[in-house]
Design goal:
The complex is a heterodimer of chains A (347) and B (291).
Chain A (H helix, E strand, L loop, with lengths): L1 H12 L5 E11 L4 E11 L3 E5 L6 H9 L7 E8 L11 H7 L4 E4 L13 H10 L6 H14 L5 H5 L8 H13 L5 E5 L7 H18 L2 E6 L2 H7 L2 E6 L2 E7 H6 L4 H9 L2 H6 L43 E2 L11 E2 L11
Parallel strand pairs in A: 3-7, 3-8, 5-6, 6-7
Antiparallel strand pairs in A: 1-2, 1-4, 8-9, 9-11, 10-11
Chain B lengths: L25 H22 L32 H37 L1 H15 L3 H12 L3 H28 L2 H8 L4 H37 L11 H8 L8 H28 L7
Helix pairs in contact in B: 1-2, 1-9, 2-3, 2-5, 2-7, 3-5, 4-5, 5-7, 6-7, 7-8, 7-9, 8-9
The chains are: A alpha/beta (347), B mainly alpha (291).
């Protein structure tokens, strides 16, 4: 948890920094249901922020909304601001967004097997990421593509650049995807479960290259995962998402050792393998009762109240955000939305 | 496989730059052979035919195949083999132009419909459905009535009638490609719609289009023959397999070889392009096991 400690210590020093990504009151809805509700998040230069939650909690949707890649039939409202670009990204045209995407903000996708065009050599795909934004001429881009493939640790990059995606393994492809994302030195890198589809042995390598890539560019990282261990190794700060809302946020060490929101507490208890191993008999791991409701069927007020052990009638109204500590990135950077917080004097 | 040739490292069994050969299936082989035969006949006809194909020769009509006239002579005392060779040109010419017209219009329309969606995509596809309601032959007869019967009119009409099948198959393929991660990834990398259409969608539907082209080629050959047989396509005085059938129909019983020879030529060419298309589909299908 040393990263969290330095993150908290560094908070004061960086307090004056302009946020790289500033999302305010982001809502995403279909015609009938609201999928994301009032999502606030801020990431400062060089900060690595994790976004965790169960499947269907809205993590990927948040990322897609930030990049303006929502599918047909989904509309986003609210504010998304990226450092160095005037105005609200949500109000930009597709063409205006295309100029920023892949240049100042880039994304690494979950599935390396399908994120590359099967009919193009990978070197050409990396080079194209640069030529499309005019950051390099064709021949420069080719040379830099090989350099980038070398940076992300592909052995014999000259040779690998001439390979087609199907000739590479999953881990190698994910490195290529990372190389494409880092090609134009983005100020914001969004990773959507970049290691979920990979072997455990390759995961650490890919995580390492993402963190190194982000650190060397002093870029902001938004890292989406459901793997708490990965968040703990990669991120300084974590946002916990449930039912399309951010229910808790804070430095990784604080949230993981002393959670306040009942959902976070349940999530951590369910993945606490040391406690499970300490029990002598084989017993079921603690679980959160119930399942995530389908989109649009979440209860009013606190979205978690139908599964929450501490819920009362009060939870039918929406719990306000309670800031916790004094985080440099503002009050939404650390806090929780719960009437009956776990831990503290209420335990 | 040397180590240097394998930057994979983690997967030494698979070379990074593939040298693995794909399995040539029998239909690709036989179909390809027949297609090559037709092409060869057309090419040979430019440099050599046993006799001038349309010249009335000083010999007897209705000869059965013999040493002088390998496939016999027709009722106008012309050499059948020479006509078959030159007729292969017409057949290929019609196929290439008809498929070319259909693909050049149909493929962009299909990609446009898939990528734009909304009212534009709907309009394109509904217009397509209307065109699809006209059988190729009927459209060609209509064109022949309007512009006169000629090979050019026939093949353009066949081409227009084939547009919908290209637009449809391209759209369905493109819809699949549009929902893939690499297109989302390309958008995330800042590629515009035109670049995505050209660099990502088109190459990935090319296999489908090539297979469709091969099948459409067979249909075009058949349609041209049918039109010529009806007397609406290639006019008298030009070699065409369909035309030969048309001229032989009154002597079906007395000189059956005059029907059998061009009939067999048409059947083999159509079979060839169909088999070739089938074989190509299997060959290009990434889902099939590569050996």
């Amino acid at each position: 948890m040393s990263t969290a400690a330095t993150g908290a210590a560094g908070a004061g020093r960086r307090a004056g920094d302009e946020p790289v990504l500033d999302v305010r009151g982001l809502h995403v809805r279909t015609r009938h249901t609201e999928l994301l509700s009032d999502v606030d998040l801020t990431i400062r230069r060089g900060e690595r922020v994790g976004l965790i939650g169960e499947s269907g909690s809205g993590k990927s949707l948040t990322a897609l909304a930030v990049l303006g890649l929502l599918g047909e039939g989904l509309t986003a409202t609210g504010g998304v601001h990226l450092a160095g670009h005037e105005g609200n990204l949500l109000e930009r045209s597709e063409g205006g967004l295309a100029r920023i995407r892949g240049d100042d903000m880039a994304m690494v996708f979950q599935e390396p097997m399908t994120a590359l065009n099967p009919t193009m050599r990978v070197g050409a795909q990396v080079a194209e990421a640069m030529t499309v934004h005019g950051s390099a001429s064709r021949s420069q881009a080719r040379r830099r593509a090989v350099d980038l493939l070398d940076q992300v640790g592909l052995p014999d990059p000259e040779h690998a650049a001439r390979a087609y995606p199907h000739q590479l393994s999953g881990g190698q492809r994910q490195r290529v995807v990372a190389a494409i994302a880092l090609a134009n030195d983005p100020v914001l890198l969004v990773c959507d479960e970049p290691t979920t589809a990979l072997d455990v042995t390759v995961q650490a390598l890919v995580l390492d290259l993402i963190v190194t890539g982000v650190q060397s560019r002093d870029a902001a990282l938004l890292f989406i995962t459901h793997d708490l261990a990965v968040v703990a190794t990669v991120c300084e700060r974590v946002l916990v998402m449930y039912g399309g809302r951010i229910v808790e946020a804070g430095p990784v060490g604080q949230v993981f050792t002393d959670p306040r929101h009942q959902y976070t507490a349940g999530l951590l208890a369910a993945s606490d393998l040391t406690a499970a191993g300490a029990r002598r008999e084989r017993s079921a791991l603690p679980t959160i009762p119930g399942t995530v409701p389908p989109a649009g069927r979440f209860p009013d007020g606190c979205v978690f109240r139908n599964r929450c052990p501490a819920a009362t009638g009060q939870c039918a109204t929406r719990p306000p955000w309670t800031p916790r500590g004094d985080h440099g990135a503002g009050e939404t950077a650390s806090g929780y939305a719960c009437f009956y917080p776990a831990g503290g004097e209420l335990r | 496989m040397s180590e240097a040739g394998s930057p994979a490292g983690m997967m030494p069994s698979t070379p990074v730059v593939g040298t693995g050969r794909r399995h040539l299936n029998p239909s690709l082989f036989v179909g390809g052979g027949l297609v090559l035969l037709v092409v060869a006949m057309a090419l040979v006809s430019y440099v050599w035919t046993p006799y001038p194909p349309m010249r009335v020769l000083g010999t007897e009509a209705y000869q059965t195949p013999n040493a002088d006239f390998w496939l016999g002579t027709d009722r106008f005392r012309r050499d059948v083999l020479s006509q078959i060779l030159v007729g292969a040109r017409t057949t290929l010419y019609v196929g290439v132009v008809a498929v070319g017209v259909a693909a050049l219009v149909g493929v962009p329309l299909g990609i446009l419909a898939a990528m734009s969606g909304g009212w534009l995509g709907q309009t394109v596809m509904r217009a397509n459905d209307i065109l699809l309601a006209f059988p190729a032959l009927l459209l060609a007869i209509m064109f022949a009535a309007l512009y006169g019967g000629s090979t050019q009119v026939a093949m353009i009409a066949i081409g227009i009638a084939t547009i919908p099948s290209f637009a449809r198959i391209t759209r369905s393929g493109a819809l699949g490609v549009m929902s893939t991660d690499y297109v989302t990834a390309a958008r995330a990398a800042g590629h515009g719609p035109f670049a995505i259409a050209l660099r990502h969608v088109l190459p990935n539907v090319a296999g489908l289009v090539i297979v469709q082209a091969s099948v459409a080629f067979a249909i075009a050959i058949l349609a041209e023959a049918a039109l010529a047989y009806l007397g609406l396509g290639t006019p008298t005085g030009q070699a065409s397999w369909g035309r030969m059938l048309y001229e032989a129909q009154s002597t079906l019983r007395s000189a059956p070889h005059l029907v059998l020879v061009p009939g067999a030529a048409i059947a083999l060419a159509v079979l060839g392009f169909n088999l070739f298309g089938d074989g190509l589909r299997d060959y290009l299908d990434p889902k099939l096991e590569r050996r």
